[in-house]
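Long-time lurker. I teach an intro course on protein structure, and each term I like to show students one example going from raw sequence to a predicted 3D structure in token notation. This year I'd like something fresh instead of my usual example. Would anyone be willing to generate the tokens for the chain below so I can use it in lecture? Attribution to the forum is fine with me.
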Amino acid sequence: MSANLFDPDGGQVNMMNATEWQQIKAIVQQALDINPEQRTQFVAQQCAADPSLRDEVIAFLKADQTLGDFISQPAYLSFVGNALSNEVEDLRIGERLGRYEIEGELGRGGMGTVYLARDEELNRKVALKILPAQLYRHPGSTERFRREAHIISALNHPNVLTIHEIGRADSIDFIATEFVDGITLRQRITAGGVTIREAADVGSQVMAALAAAHAAGFIHRDVKPENIIIRVDGLVKVLDFGIAKLNGSQDTSSESTPVGDINFSIGAGTPRYMSPEQLRGDALDPRSDIWSFGAVLFELLTGQPPGDDYET
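-- Reply from a regular --
Happy to contribute to a lecture. Here you go:
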């Protein structure tokens, strides 16, 4: 799978591209063709070297449990594939969007492309997230895109990614955030050798960010290693509040996601780190985020996730 967002090696992150979709589709199709009792072992074997790939496959298999035969239809695979291949025209290095000059691409996926850019007025690097053109006709997508920025900006916490601007230029919606020079917690886990002291330091900073979100009334709903970045100076940043919800609002763990011209619901979040109530689709409160981070902390200390059966 792609490297993680803000990867110092410049990889693409935590976002599905057409090549990755083909890999996921092949595994999902094979899994649906075998006995359900054998799927857990099959997925574990096929994705043993790539936890992110495993989580994507599990998400689609879980969707199949909700949608029945719909996921196995070629039409489903076709319009998802078409949506992934229908990419917005790339911004080129040196091109300007408002006061930002593009310096490179950091990552891309269904909900946006992220560029490294320079703010010419303040002479600083930023991460510029652009909404894909094919989603402009879906009001829910633009709402979610802007909601993430408003949630993050409302928190104003050192362990939460800083929003510089929510803007529009040349008919393109964008979010400008601080550029984080560091590695994701996934990369740190993969490197190994995490000490208890280091884990405690990372854990205390993540919990501080979540406490700020919970105090403001938000539940993150997707706490996982890919959404946590350790800066080169040791400061931890929690990312991706795109599926966060207000605590106490009418909500379940699934949401309508636009693909092509059709909406379908799949669970929001990453199954490996979901609390039991989130997996069940029950109403959530801040304890769900605490459960999720407990699973992350377990993996940080042991190098292994707390459970390997995606159906548990």
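Some talking points for your students: The domain at 96-178 is CATH 3.30.200.20 (Phosphorylase Kinase; domain 1). The chain has three domains: 18-85, 96-178, 182-302.
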